[in-house]
Amino acid sequence: MGIEIEIGWLTALMFGSLMVLLMAGLPLAFVTGGLACVFLFILGDAQTLNIVPSRIFPLMTNYQLSAIPLFIFLAAMLERAGIINEMFDVIYKLLGGVRGGLAAATIIASTILAAMVGVIGAAVVTMGIIALPAMLERHYDPKIAMGSIMAGGTLGILIPPSILAIIYAVVAEQSVGELFIGAVLPGLLLSGMYILYVTVMCYADPKKGPPIPVEDRVSTAEKMRLLGNMAAPITLIFVVLGVIFAGVATPVEAAGIGTFGAFIVAAIHRKLTWATVREACMTTLKASAMVIWIMFGATIFVGLYVLEGGQEFVESTMTGLGLGPWGILILMQVILVALGMFLDWVGILLLAVPIFVPIIKALGAQAFGLGSEGDLVLWFGVLYLVNMQMSFLSPPFGYALFYLRGVAPAHIPMSDIFKSALPFLFLQIVGLVMCMLFPTIITWLPRLVYGG
């Protein structure tokens, strides 16, 4: 039999060694999986290693997860077909005449993009390549330009079809469709707050976001023609999300419809070639493989921790602090933001959610003034998604900051990119607090759609 280690020490050992190895730059998937196997062997015997297949197999056979490669492929096809560039171009020309119009256009385009693309890196990088040069050329304040690209890009985590929401629903064992619908209003709320902030800033100081010169603006007829160009991809989004919200299809079936639709849209835009399809397939393969490997590693790691009594340890520690239900919820949010500074989103989800969700359920819906456990789980799930959006923007290791660094002009220092994220990070905190204080922002739409 293996060694007995007291749970407090085990927590420090497991998570401490995890942090050290990640700081050393090793990939999360293999660190979590490898460490789990080492600890399994130290704590148990050869028999204990059976936990590895028993944790991985349910993920391999999970039907809901098949939506992930389909949504990634849908996004990759639209990107390869040049739809995203065209979309920014259209919104840019429609709003260019307004002060701060290009920054608002970037956020609107990112919001629409989020409804096409479940992954965040794509949106930040694409917008960084298209929108940043356009705004800097027009003498926009670089901080407003970069902030709106990063904040807009992170909406992909929240607005359906978010890949994170699919994985969350699988791990927390709840309905993907409900989580999608619950995330719509918070996503639009945040998007609206970003646009409002940018517009107010640019009207207060026109130098921050000057309108484009009159000679560069387009006529109404030209605007209508441009909108016509966007009809196919926008219709595709409405169809994909519409069938989920109407309850006609599950998210996986909707992803299938979307993937088929992406071929049609690419064909309409005369971009359906073997090269396009091949590149989209490669992107899908790499992204899906990364996600699923992280899931394998992290699920074994957490599985072992829970098996050794980690769940009870975390629960008793949190309740022992005498914080009350709201205090525990806020502490969880703080822990998630802290983790978000160091870990990647799939990792945080698989390490924190299996431990946090049972604690929240144990506190009960009444503690937060909610009607039922279903409401409680949905509310916490969407709060989690809003929180993850913050982790992408929070310095020093927010992913969005580095995605933008990769495509921003070399003369812009990293410190400016950090500074440009801060006002938007503040708006996200305001959004998170609003969703916590007014749960109906999250629960109203799912109630409307599903009734009850």
UniProtKB/TrEMBL annotation:
TRAP C4-dicarboxylate transport system permease DctM subunit domain location, by residue?
Answer: 15-440
Q: Which residues cross the membrane?
A: 12-44, 56-78, 90-109, 115-136, 148-171, 183-205, 226-248, 254-272, 284-306, 326-343, 348-370, 376-404, 424-445
Alphabetically sorted, this entry's keywords are:
Cell inner membrane, Cell membrane, Membrane, Transmembrane, Transmembrane helix, Transport
Q: What is its main location?
A: membrane
Tell me what topology the record assigns in the membrane: Multi-pass membrane protein
User: Would you say which domain of life the source belongs to?
Assistant: Bacteria
Molecular function in Gene Ontology:
transmembrane transporter activity
One cellular-component annotation, GO: plasma membrane
Show the coiled coil region(s). none
- Cellular localisation: Cell inner membrane
Q: How does it assemble?
A: The complex comprises the extracytoplasmic solute receptor protein and the two transmembrane proteins.
Q: Which family does it belong to?
A: Belongs to the TRAP transporter large permease family.
Question: What exactly does this protein do?
Answer: Part of the tripartite ATP-independent periplasmic (TRAP) transport system.
Protein name in UniProt: TRAP transporter large permease protein
The species this protein was found in: Roseovarius bejariae
Its taxonomic placement starts with:
Bacteria, Pseudomonadati, Pseudomonadota, Alphaproteobacteria, Rhodobacterales
